[in-house]
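Issue 218. Parser rejects a valid record. Input:
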Amino acid sequence: MTDFGGKFFWYELITSDPQAALAFYGDVLGWTSQPFGGERTDDPYHVVSGSAGAVGGVMAIPAEAKDCGMAPWWGGYMGSADVDADAQRLSAAGGKVMRPAEDITGVGRFAVMADPGGAVFMLLKGSSDGGMEAASPMAPGHVGWHELYAGDFDKDLAFYTGQFGWTTGDAMDMGEMGSYQLVSQTGGGDFQDMTGGIMPCPKEMPRPAWLFYFVVDDIDMSVEKVKAGGGTVLNGPIEVPGGGWIIQASDPQGAMFAAVGSKGEA
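Output the parser choked on:
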């Protein structure tokens, strides 16, 4: 099984309307879904799958979080061999524990963290010895790119490379927007090893955050599906190095996501 230590491997949408979100992403990204464990309750946790297996989950915003003003959003989980120890280590390195480590019955132990600039991510150690295999690069329906809008570019870059062993590739000058630093969660240094990028949080973003790019076959078709499903294309399509095209969008409930794929090809 793949070692997901220090790498994003599970993605979770917390939303105001899970059923509507499942229908939207099912059309845009080709996902299938099923309640976790086959349970059918009023508010089940739905596991969503792409072309190579499970990608993540969709759930309703908890009542207590809704009362605190939580809006729909996508979060990412990183693998951890010891959630309590990692949370303590990351806190000492400039991160922040947003929710202390606790157990999820039948799933594992998790904690909610923030990096030095304020972007939120989660740690997770599964409760069983079994694991997942990593999807092949650019598998449709899976995450093909991870992008951090950093609240503190220098501290955040040092945090992820120093604490998780990520490596850096080229840095692209974006003028007034600052530098776009390519990073690899897998430790490689060549362009094909890069799995994401870190850039200063632009003024258009309400807060520092991770943005996840889901792989699609045809970016133009995805644009049409986003619009037809009630979502909004915020930016793109834009061509990126390597020949791919990207869009940034929000779903009908307001959660921001992104897509990457070919243009004009099925």
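Fixed in the parser; the record now loads. The longest helix spans residues 18-29.
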